[in-house]
Specification:
Layout (H helix, E strand, L loop, with lengths): L2 E5 L2 E4 L4 E8 L7 E7 L6 E7 L5 E3 L7 E5 L5 E6 L8 E8 L16 E2 L3 E6 L1
């Protein structure tokens, strides 16, 4: 089964940038649904960005459109989330998620689509 490990989180000032990485191992993700989700204490989990690695379909939450970019490397072993113009409300634990052999999907921003999850990386934005 695929194993996911996130990295790249940290503390930044509002307006700054961070790039999160999610390394997948143990299984091919060449035809997979993958996504980034976040959750702040006391709040519900929110889908941030999702993509299908084979078809190139990408979805973003309205709150991050124009600021965040999801991508993979050419080997499809690492998922990235480039975050720019960060705001205080972006503060959360960010999780990488994957669904291998993703032949069917309905919403790439719905965590219920994804059976495999990383442990998360904390992003803190101060103003």
């Amino acid at each position: 089964q695929v194993h996911l490990v996130e990295s790249g989180g940290g503390s930044v000032q509002a307006g700054g940038s961070l790039r999160l990485s999610c390394t997948a191992s143990g299984y091919s993700v060449s035809w997979a649904c993958m996504g980034w989700f976040r959750q702040a204490p006391g709040l519900e989990r929110e889908g941030v960005a999702g993509m299908h690695t084979g078809e190139g379909i990408i979805e973003y939450a309205d709150s991050v459109k124009g600021r965040f970019t999801i991508s993979t490397d050419t080997s499809k072993t690492t998922l990235y989330l480039q975050m720019q113009s960060l705001k205080a409300e972006d503060t959360a634990m960010y999780y990488c998620a994957a669904k291998t052999d993703c032949y069917f999907f309905s919403d790439l921003l719905d965590g219920r689509e994804f059976p495999r999850w990383g442990q998360g990386t904390q992003v803190t934005v101060s103003s």
